[in-house]
Amino acid sequence: xxxxxxxxxxxxxxxxxxxxxxxxxxxxxxxxxxxxxxxxxxxxxxxxxxxxxxxxxxxxxxxxxxxxxxxxxxxxxxxxxxxxxxxxxxxxxxxxxxxxxxxxxxxxxxxxxxxxxxxxxxxx
Length: 124
Fold this sequence. Notes:
Blueprint (H helix, E strand, L loop, with lengths): L1 H15 L9 E4 L3 H5 L1 H9 L3 E4 L5 H19 L7 H17 L22
Parallel strand pairs: 1-2
Helix pairs in contact: 1-3
GO molecular function: nucleic acid binding
InterPro entries: Integrase_cat-core, RNaseH-like_sf, RNaseH_sf
Protein name: Integrase catalytic domain-containing protein
């Protein structure tokens, strides 16, 4: 699982955000051994000059944000469409990410799109 997360982080940094002129500066993780001690994980974040911050143990407010994202991904991307290959799945997540960031209104920011908070973001 950590390997797929690292692949996603590397791809997001390299592809998805680069065309927006953005970069990941901080990764917030729990205190799991894999995030604290993995040489591979630290090689990826060091290669992209990404800082790491740990959430407080047993802090539901921080963990709740991750759980909500997981639930949203499952409901809006993973389960509504069946993908036959990893390539199809990767293309589908990029489409969903574009929709989520460029078109989908978000309750937390007054029904605005996420990219409305980024100056000169793609789609503006």
